[in-house]
């Protein structure tokens, strides 16, 4: 099982949309990615990701309004002053619109903090069938109708990814736009975030997408330093798959990813990701099978450190807190308490990049207190 910062246990979701059953394995999705929630859109294949209700943003390959008109409709985010955002929204060749850094953005910077334009509840699960997404149309239409004209224009300017057969059944554009761009807003609702919806995918993203239950907003923060003119990116899919598997999953969004990882002709990136996935699976299993042998735990701690190194080489920041915790746990079990505390502190620091106080941070602090008590 692929693992990351946290694991939310959610069962397989079968999403019924326009007669199609869309499979979404959130249990494995949550275990691989993290609470940082890589972008989420309805996926016709089984996939992995954190805190996700299986709505993934599709590629900004087309849009209804011209680029300048669409840009004028997009807010800069609730907590970002409109006169000083660190980014701009511009057309990008082959991608439609994208979010570009205007100034250097240091790691941990909160780039966008955005409340949903509208939210609707997830429909009730139909046993043996899944969630009938078409039943959301009434809620979406009602919420859309209550928006001011400018917000309605913003909604309609977003990418409208349509599956084969949508035109034949005259599927509502409100529903397909929402399906293409929505993110979860907790455990039961789904919302539309117009600005965050403009952020494109990379298999080596420089930013992290996080739902703050405390704020009731989505937070995009820099997972690493981002340079002037660099596109701000997040991930839509599990990142520990092979290039072929990732491309197959991304094909449903109508684009071919050309990021550094996908363009690596040497195959080294794919090999590293395979090793990362294998290490995560083994360490996840071992962490639940406590061994009393010091030597065994020391070996596992070294393997966890190897995992940290590989994640650093691939710049997969979503997984760092999880990897740090592996090292801390096995160092502690080996009796290396000073090392365990050091790694435990790194877990807290990493989680606090998204939010200073959260359930995850509190759990990490409790874990660290236990290490300090030794």
Report on the structure:
The structure is a single chain. With 374 residues, the protein is of the alpha+beta class. Among the domains are: 87-239, Beta Complex (Beta-clip-like), CATH 2.170.270.10; 268-373, Alpha Horseshoe (Serine Threonine Protein Phosphatase 5, Tetratricopeptide repeat). The chain is built from eleven helices and 13 strands. It has helices spanning 26-32, 67-72, 137-145, 149-156, 173-181, 243-250, 268-287, 294-314, 320-333, 337-351, 359-372, and strands at 12-17, 20-25, 87-92, 96-101, 110-114, 118-121, 131-132, 183-184, 189-192, 200-201, 207-212, 217-222, 231-234. The strands form four sheets. Strands 3-4-13-10 form a four-stranded mixed β-sheet. A hairpin with a 4-residue loop joins β8 (183-184) and β9 (189-192). It starts with 11 loop residues before the first strand and ends with a helix. Residues 1-76 have low confidence and may be disordered.
């Amino acid at each position: 099982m692929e693992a990351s910062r946290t694991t939310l246990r959610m069962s397989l979701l079968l999403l019924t949309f326009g007669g199609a059953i869309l499979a979404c394995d959130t249990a494995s999705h949550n275990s691989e990615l993290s609470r940082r929630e890589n972008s989420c859109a309805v996926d016709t294949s089984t996939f992995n990701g954190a805190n996700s209700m299986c709505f993934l943003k599709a590629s900004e390959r087309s849009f209804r309004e011209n680029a300048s008109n669409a840009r004028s409709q997009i807010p800069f985010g609730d907590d970002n002053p409109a006169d000083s955002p660190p980014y701009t929204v511009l057309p990008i060749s082959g991608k439609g619109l994208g979010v570009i850094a205007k100034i250097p953005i240091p790691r941990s910077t909160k780039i966008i903090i955005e409340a949903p334009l509208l939210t609707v509840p997830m429909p009730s699960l139909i046993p043996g069938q899944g969630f009938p997404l078409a039943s959301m149309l009434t809620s979406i239409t009602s919420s859309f109708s209550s928006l001011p004209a400018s917000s309605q224009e913003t909604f309609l300017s977003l990418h409208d990814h349509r599956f084969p057969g949508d035109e034949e059944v005259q599927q509502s554009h409100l529903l397909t736009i929402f399906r293409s761009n929505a993110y979860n807003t907790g455990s039961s609702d789904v919302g539309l975030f117009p600005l965050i919806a403009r952020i494109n995918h990379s298999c080596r993203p420089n930013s992290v997408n996080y739902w703050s239950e405390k704020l009731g907003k989505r937070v995009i923060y820099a997972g690493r330093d981002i340079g002037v003119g660099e596109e701000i990116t997040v991930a839509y899919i599990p990142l520990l798959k092979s290039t072929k598997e990732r491309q197959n999953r991304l094909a449903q969004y109508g684009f071919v990813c050309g990021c550094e990882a996908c363009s690596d002709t040497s195959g080294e990136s794919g090999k590293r990701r395979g090793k990362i996935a294998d290490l995560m699976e083994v360490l996840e299993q071992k962490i639940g099978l406590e061994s009393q042998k010091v030597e065994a735990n020391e070996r596992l701690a070294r393997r966890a450190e190897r995992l940290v190194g590989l994640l650093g080489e691939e710049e997969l920041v979503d997984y760092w807190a999880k990897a740090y915790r592996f090292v801390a746990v096995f160092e502690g079990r080996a009796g290396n308490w000073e090392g365990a505390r050091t790694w435990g502190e790194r877990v807290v620091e990493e989680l606090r990049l998204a939010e200073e106080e959260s359930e995850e941070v509190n759990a990490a602090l409790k874990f660290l207190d236990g290490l300090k008590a030794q």
